[in-house]
Amino acid sequence: MAIVSLVVELKDKPGQLAKVIEPVSKYKGNIISIVHRREEISEGKVPVEISIEIDEKNVKKLLENIKSKGITIKRFNESRLTSTTSVVLIGHIIHTDLSSTIDAVDKTGFAEVVEMHISMPCLNKPSTAMVTISAIGDEELKKAMENLKAVCKKKGIIMIEPLEPE
Amino acid sequence: MYMIKLAIFGFGAVGRGVAKILIDKERIRRLIGEYTVVAIADSKGAIISDSIDLKKALEIKNKEGSLPERLTVDEIIDSVDFDVALELTPTNIKTGEPGLTHIKKCLKKGCHVVTSNKGPLVVAYKELMKLAEKNNVKLMFEATVGGAMPVIKLIKRDLAGNNIISIKGILNGTCNYILSKMEKEKLPYDVVLSEAKELGIAEANESYDVEGIDSAAKLVILANALMNMDVKFDDVEIVGITKITPEAFEIAMEKGYTIRLIAEVNEQTLKVGPRLVSLNNPLCIHGTLNAVLIKTDLAKEVFVIGRGAGSIETASAVISDLAEIYSCEVNK
Ligand SMILES: NC(=O)c1ccc[n+]([C@@H]2O[C@H](COP(=O)([O-])OP(=O)(O)OC[C@H]3O[C@@H](n4cnc5c(N)ncnc54)[C@H](OP(=O)(O)O)[C@@H]3O)[C@@H](O)[C@H]2O)c1
Known about the structure:
The complex is a heterodimer.
Chain A: E1 2-11, H1 18-26, E2 30-36, E3 45-54, H2 59-68, E4 72-79, E5 83-91, H3 98-106, E6 111-119, E7 127-135, H4 138-155, E8 158-162
Antiparallel strand pairs in A: 1-3, 1-4, 2-3, 5-7, 5-8, 6-7
Helix pairs in contact in A: 3-4
Chain B: E1 4-9, H1 13-22, H2 25-32, E2 35-41, E3 46-48, H3 54-64, H4 73-79, E4 84-87, H5 99-109, E5 112-115, H6 118-134, E6 139-140, H7 152-158, E7 164-170, H8 173-185, H9 189-198, H10 207-210, H11 213-226, E8 237-238, H12 246-254, E9 257-265, E10 270-278, E11 289-296, E12 301-307, H13 311-331
Parallel strand pairs in B: 1-2, 1-4, 4-5, 5-6, 8-10
Antiparallel strand pairs in B: 2-3, 7-9, 7-11, 9-10, 11-12
Helix pairs in contact in B: 1-13, 2-13, 4-5, 5-6, 6-11, 8-9
The complex binds NADP nicotinamide-adenine-dinucleotide phosphate.
């Protein structure tokens, strides 16, 4: 799932919002918020900002469908990384090629290591790291975690996952 | 008035705890009616009598170390008449023995069994349940998971009608003691472990606990008994706590987490391992306590916490099972 927010221009008369809501439900999106920016009315048109949670596969089709109803999309942005979790790694993280461990997540294309905090007690002792991973959706996050877990297992690194999703 | 005849197999911490409670006739009579203990056995000997004096039996065990009559449990099952066996011998999760043979023989003979021994249930849950049903007797095992903490009957009886979606639990007090101590005092694993051994919280051979084996055995029982699964010990993904560093607690804390050994079962998961537990999560418990967070479709979340071990504490669960067997009859 992705969260997209768009600003559309609607004529200031009844029945206009339906033209946007209809395609959203058609593509199984979930409306998170709708804000009418009445103070910005110009030439009889109101800018309306809508946030939608929707399957990334459907984003393009949704935008096209809205446009086909004669509605102008003034702005559109997709916040890509919506799911985040942190895991603790314990083991010889540095000596086992750290970058290839991180690649297990980064190379997926749908997830990234966005934060890392390593603590090394002393030489040759196992080190401990907190790694924060973000992905474009929950399913993708799960897959990235599975990749990371497989790599860690091969390298003898313990991965401690959260009990509940963040 | 019918006189219920009990046999106690295994006279260690739990067996003796049970005997101490059974001395209190008034307490137990209210639950099950008239009763008497007709056999007690340990690994080397036994006491057999129509009405065993439990105080004396405890004295003999304390003084002599073992019971006097040269009889094995197998011989007792073959030759002594009893209604309920309390099977309290040591756990072996590979073979289930000696408890497995004891329980099978008792069920076949038409006797109820109450046990605190995980081994037989981990090895042969389905088989034993079928055997009990076929012989129209009960096999009760509240004490096998979470000691005194009610879990099995709580879910089977008090949450009857619910589908259990997931169970997450802290099922090993030794591990929880070590981890919560590491968290508080910022000490390395080895130091806390030796301290736990000195205090008698960890056993001399700690591997059964700290490698997650004990928790995994309990998880298998929960999955099979309460979630209608058919899983084996080898199906559990197990990681122990021996490699956890003090630094792990420090950096976890920065994100509002601590670390606990969690046993978890749901439709996709059957695992025991260290997990990041939010400081707000009810499972963020300290010391030797056990706890279980149950998620069901009707009741939603239910949380239980209690003592997972101890002689009298575990005996409490054995007694409650005994009461359950006779509950219908007493209420009549
Ligand atoms: N202790 C707890 O807090 C706790 C909590 C939950 C569950 N449990 C479970 O409850 C069971 C008993 O625990 P425990 O702490 O009482 O253990 P324990 O102190 O070691 O006692 C075990 C008893 O079983 C006897 N025994 C061993 N082999 C036997 C055999 N073949 N036939 C007859 N008796 C035999 C032992 O005899 P000897 O006295 O001659 O050695 C001893 O009396 C175990 O399965 C354990 O996992 C214990």
